[in-house]
Amino acid sequence: MPKKKTKSLRTRLLASYLLLCLVPMFLTVFLVSVNSAQRLERNALQRAALYSAQIVRGMDTFTETYSSLTRLLTIDYDVISVLNRETDSIYEQMNRNTTVRRLLMRVGMLHPDIRNVMLVTETGRVYQYSGQGVSLRADALLSAPWFEEIRSSPSDLMITPTHYTDYYETDRDGIAVSACRRIYGSDGRRSCILIVDIDPYTLVDLTASQKLEGLEEDMRITVRTGSGGLVWDSLLSDGSATWEAVLQASPAPDGNDSDFVWQEVSSDGLLHVTVRIPRRSMMRSTVDFSLYATVIMVCFVLLILLVSTRLSRHITRPVLELQEKMDEAEQGRYSLLPVPDVPDEIGVLTAHYNHMIDTIQTLISEVYLREIKQKDAMLMALRSQINPHVLFNTLEAIRMKAVVNGDMETAQMIKLLSRMFRATLDADPEKSTIRSEHLYASCYMEVQNIRFRDRFRFTSRIPEDLMDIHVPPMIFQPILENSIEHGGRASHEAMEIMLDAHAEDGVLTLLFTDTGAGMSPEQMETLNRDLEDIARGQIDTFTGHERIALRNIAERICLRYGEGWGLRIEESSGAGTTVRLRIPLSPPREDEDQSKEDL
After folding, report:
1. What is the pLDDT of residues 365-403, one digit of tens each?
2. Is the alpha carbon torsion for 160, 166, 170, 175 positive or negative?
3. Helices H, strands E: what count in the chain?
4. What is the pTM of this model?
5. At what angle do helices 548-561 and 476-483 cross, to 10 degrees?
């Protein structure tokens, strides 16, 4: 039954430790980031509202101031009455120009931010006063687009967008914002328009801290007319752009729908203030915090991985060692584990394992010894029940009778059978050698050739220096019998059986090769698997009948020499079968007689 794939204890410990450490950390960072983003959004809207309220108050003061200044002219009907009056008298024209200029001078000196004051009548006559001494081009003024807008506007007080002062003779590239007042005559009809040019740089007064804060957050503040004309832009105050670039840009401030925007309108409705804070700059601190938190978390993850890896290795190492030893015990290799001086739970488990292994080894030893003693007792009982002298005398009497009757073949067979029986009774595990086994195998092959009319040819190539090597008794004949039974008798053809032996590096190797029918690949694989299991110490009672002789020999070799020794089918096909037998090399004893009597 295949084992189910399971995660190792070390992996589960490491995953659990990382989960317990990292989940609270990630959750904390996430909640702090979300809370910071919401708090920053509220702060952004509050700052935008504060900025816009301050600027709206400034714009209200600006429009109220210039409304009061321009209102002076609306109550001087004497001056208004002579503005559109036509006269040919040079003296009257000079007096009128002087009176109007004096009035414009008085208006221009009421506030220091006024650059130029102009008066345009309905008939197109232009009067001007400039504290800077600039000259005016009337035709350029009357043809300016912004002037056409205020002339057609129904409002009495108007603020123009920022425009070029190209109607000046000397400052055509300059810019200005104009506060315009429509003036009516005593009859209630439009008489003229008073225009006051103001420097746009002075419209909004931001403190140094406000400029710095707006610069850091990429904040943009714009002041526009009701029709959308640009009056003031904070890009100029922070030096990031010139008025020329601002005037050539799109009429709407740059940004997107996700930016924080706050808008307010002045009390008279003439000016609209917009404060825009880009979300990317507002969230920069949150992004920086997330970046720093990510770096810190990565460092913590590496530290946690290092600590948890060492901790899990310390916990799981004895468990893995115990698992390896149990796997070895499952395969029949029993070894003990060291127990720590101050054992913990795993140390106690290791001590119990060692006790279990000692018990198993004791039980195995007792069972093997009991089985060996039982087999020896049975063998001795069988031997005691047979009277060898009676049996040998009887076989000899039969052989002699066959000789008298002229049946030499029967006589020879009885002689060989007597030798084999004597060798079986005299077989001693401590004295059996290759020579004795080879002699017994040769007698067996002669008997088989008498039975089957010389169908088998047995050839051995064993060096003389190996003939007295100790081997377990009765291991050659069962292999030869297996070759004859399964490879030769079924084919009814002549078969050759060869026996080779060689020793190398303390290992004795015997090769039995026949030219019989062989076996199928499936049978060879099954038999080799059983022989390998026996060589690893897995000796079970075999209830089948196929190749039981080979399994019997393998069990005897394992019981005598231990694990790792035994039999293997090297090759088996229609051309024959090769069986390899490996045992430790046991040299002959010095006190043992090297010559054996020919049985």
Report:
1. 777 767 766 666 665 655 555 556 556 667 777 777 777
2. positive
3. 17, 15
4. 0.44
5. 160
Whole-angstrom distance, CA of residue 189 vs CA of residue 182: 10
Confidence (pLDDT) at 590? 46
Cβ-Cβ contacts under 8 Å for 184 (sequence gap 6 or more): 74, 80, 190, 191
Please report how many Cα atoms fall inside a 13 Å half-sphere around the Cα of residue 31, on the Cβ side: 6
Q: For residue 592, which amino acid is it?
A: E
Q: Name the residue among 264, 295, 259 with its Cα closest to residue 277.
A: 259
Q: Is the pLDDT of residue 211 over 50?
A: yes
Q: Which three-class secondary structure state does DSSP give residue 472?
A: coil
433 secondary structure, DSSP code: B
Contact status, residue 437 vs residue 476, Cβ threshold 8 Å: yes
Beta strands in 469-559 (DSSP E): 495-504, 507-514
Residue 304 three-state SS:
helix
DSSP 144-199: -HHHHHHHH---SEEEPPPEE-TTBSS-TT-EEEEEEEEEE-TTSSEEEEEEEEE-
Q: What is d(CA 50, CA 45) in angstroms, rounded to the nearest whole number? A: 9
* Extended strands (E) in 245-378: 260-265, 271-277
**To which residue do tokens 């050759």 refer?**
496
Joined tokens for residue 455: 């169908």
The answer to whether 267 and 240 have CB atoms below 8 angstroms apart is no
CB contact at 8 A, 547 and 472: no
DSSP code of residue 75: G
Question: CA-CA distance, 175 to 355, in Å (whole number)?
Answer: 102
Give the position of tokens 């600006």: 62
- Alpha carbons 277 and 50: distance in angstroms, whole number: 13
Q: How far apart are CA 363 and CA 369, in angstroms?
A: 10
Handedness of CA 69, 70, 71, 72 (dihedral sign): positive
Query: Residues 135, 168: contact at Cβ < 8 Å?
Result: yes
In terms of Cβ atoms closer than 10 Å to its own Cβ (0-12, 13-18, 19+), residue 572 is buried
Partners of residue 461 on adjacent β-strands: 500
Token pair belonging to 15: 């995953």
C-alpha closest to that of 108 among 146, 140, 79, 66: 66
Tokens of 571: 């090759």
In the block, which residue shows the tokens 């920086």?
288
Residues in the chain: 599
From 115, 77, 116, select the one nearest 99 (Cα to Cα). Answer: 77
SS (H, E, C) 509-526: EEEEEECCCCCCHHHHHH
pLDDT tens string 257-315? 667 787 888 887 888 888 887 777 666 666 776 777 778 878 877 887 777 777 767 76
Measured CA to CA in angstroms, residue 122 lies from 76, 197, 502 at distances of 17, 19, 136
Q: What is the mean pLDDT of the chain?
A: 76
The tokens of 509 are what?
């190797």
Cα angle 242, 248, 251 (rounded to 5 degrees) comes to 110
Handedness of CA 287, 292, 293, 295 (dihedral sign): positive
Q: Is the Cβ–Cβ distance between 205 and 58 less than 8 Å?
A: yes
Q: Provide the phi-psi class of 432: left if phi over 0, else alpha when psi is between -120 and 50, else beta.
A: beta
Rounded to an integer, what distance in angstroms lies between the CA atom of residue 423 and that of residue 408? 23
